[in-house]
Design brief:
The chain has 250 residues and is α/β, with parallel strands linked by helices. It has one domain: P-loop containing nucleotide triphosphate hydrolases (Rossmann fold). It is built from nine helices and ten strands. The longest helix has 14 residues.
Length: 250
């Protein structure tokens, strides 16, 4: 398969000198769903912000063969959609429909196409019929779904989600999972929620101290208790991932 995302020898240090990424190499195939997991400070979110040029380090970052560099930012940010942990970071217009239309409108698309994209994106996340509402009147779970719709309306080739299950109640958590499972798009999930990662993804990458320390089938990765503990991770009580074979999707 072609690489949707290709990262080679990526290093990044923050202005205060803190080294956040150290020789990161990663290839994500088109259509793949991959989880990036690790303890706080492992470098996960820093890596995420390199995928559309919010941060730029030393090394190579490519999306579908296009380098993530200054003169390609417009194209890259249409192809890579990032859903941040806090939906309020992405919802700022008067209505839900205006939030979802913001990206396509800035692309200069025709009015009819914008309306179609808004309808399709809200339908995909189960929020069609809520376009007239104001985002701050929605529940947190609804805001998460609308924030996802604002990205889907751009029809990205790569969908990146930062802690998608955080602060969701069980019902909202399950609903969002079902939505993400139904999407036929390359998906990268940055999360501490190991069961959520397991349900959504087939591959996991563990980061620690700015490095990738493990990469493989998610069942195998999550079944290695010593590997998890060494890297500050722990499965919740009563959760037992399957090694190999087909996972049960509910």
């Amino acid at each position: 398969m072609n690489a949707a995302v290709l990262i080679k020898n990526l290093d990044y240090a923050y202005p205060d000198g803190t080294k956040a990424l150290n020789d990161v190499n990663l290839k994500v195939a088109e259509g793949e769903k991959i989880a990036i997991i690790g303890a706080n400070g492992a470098g996960k979110s820093t890596l995420l912000l390199h995928l559309n040029g919010i941060l730029q380090g030393d090394g190579v970052v490519e999306v579908l063969g296009t380098p993530v560099v200054d003169n390609h930012f417009r194209e890259i940010r249409q192809r890579v959609g990032i859903v941040f942990q806090d939906p309020d970071d992405q919802l700022f217009m008067t209505t839900v429909a205006q939030d979802v239309a913001f990206g396509p409108t800035n692309q200069g698309l025709p009015t009819a196409e914008i309306a179609e994209r808004v309808h399709d994106a809200l339908t995909a996340v189960g929020m069609n019929g809520h376009g007239h509402r104001t985002a701050h009147h929605l529940s947190f779970g609804q805001k998460k779904r609308v924030a996802t719709a604002t990205v889907l309306s751009m029809q990205p080739d790569v969908l990146v989600l930062d802690e998608p299950s955080s602060n969701l109640d069980p019902r909202a958590r399950r609903h969002l999972m079902e939505i993400l499972q139904s999407l036929h798009v390359t998906t990268i999930v940055v999360t501490h929620d190991l069961p959520y990662a397991y349900e959504l993804c087939d591959r996991a990458v563990i980061m620690s101290d700015g490095k990738i320390v493990a990469d493989g089938p998610i069942g195998k990765i999550l079944s290695d208790e010593e590997l998890l503990l060494t890297n500050g991770l722990e499965l919740p009580h009563g959760f037992f991932p399957v090694v190999g074979g087909k996972k049960e999707r509910r």
